[in-house]
Design goal:
Length: 87
């Protein structure tokens, strides 16, 4: 079972837009070298989007390890400046 509770519809015209864990999203397919990325579809508005869209990782030029490190610091409650120093 895919855990989609972190995701929400990204279509701003959709009634479910921005609501996480609403049960409106389904996985329509997978892509990527190891099929590790999911394509999601919203049942309410029929929009399809990548699971990475709308996350800090999407279209990021930073290597994933670096992004993970930055996010960890933010999750630890560090401010942006402090995070910038630590990474
Ligand atoms: Zn939608």
């Amino acid at each position: 079972m895919d855990d989609l509770s972190r995701f929400c519809c990204l279509n701003s015209d959709c009634p479910e837009h921005g609501k996480r864990g609403g049960g409106n999203l389904t996985v329509t397919g997978r892509y990527g070298p190891r099929k590790e990325r999911r394509m999601l579809r919203c049942r309410a508005c029929k929009a399809r989007f990548s699971e990475r869209k709308g996350t800090p990782l999407f279209d990021s030029r930073l290597p994933p390890e670096k992004v993970g490190s930055v996010l960890e610091h933010i999750a630890e409650g560090c401010g942006v400046r402090q995070t910038g120093r630590l990474c």
